[in-house]
Write a structure and sequence with these properties.
It is built from five helices and three strands. The termini are far apart.
Length: 125
């Protein structure tokens, strides 16, 4: 097993930022029916930066590890910076090749984040 696979398993078995935030005004739930993944992502924003971010849910190792890695990456970043985070940049956080059958798993948390940020930006124009 290579170091990247070990990292995925570590984030799956010990997800970072797993739990709920008390203020869930910036939260979104998504599902990946093809794999059975279910995820709720929530974040706190102050001065256009992510001050706290957490997720709950269940799913395959790739979806949970992806959410864990994304929450670590996003904390402290600006909304502007995170809205520019591409799908390929998200996959590169995983450090492994992700085939077409697993890409929805790898991008579920990213999709939730992008939708939350879009909704937040629209509310605060």
């Amino acid at each position: 097993m290579n170091i990247y696979q070990e990292n995925i398993l570590d984030h799956y078995h010990n997800p970072r930022n797993f739990g709920s935030l008390s203020d869930n005004s910036n939260a979104l739930s998504l599902e990946n029916p093809s794999c059975g993944d279910s995820l709720t992502l929530s974040l706190s924003v102050e001065k256009n930066s992510i001050t706290n971010i957490a997720f709950t849910g269940s799913g395959c190792a790739l979806s949970i590890a992806s959410a864990s890695l994304l929450t670590e990456y996003a904390k402290g970043k600006s909304i502007e910076e995170l809205t520019k985070l591409s799908k390929s940049a998200m996959v590169s956080l995983l450090g492994i090749e992700v085939g077409p059958a697993r890409i929805k798993c790898a991008l579920l948390a990213w999709e939730a984040l992008q939708k939350i940020l879009h909704n937040f930006s629209e509310k605060n124009l």
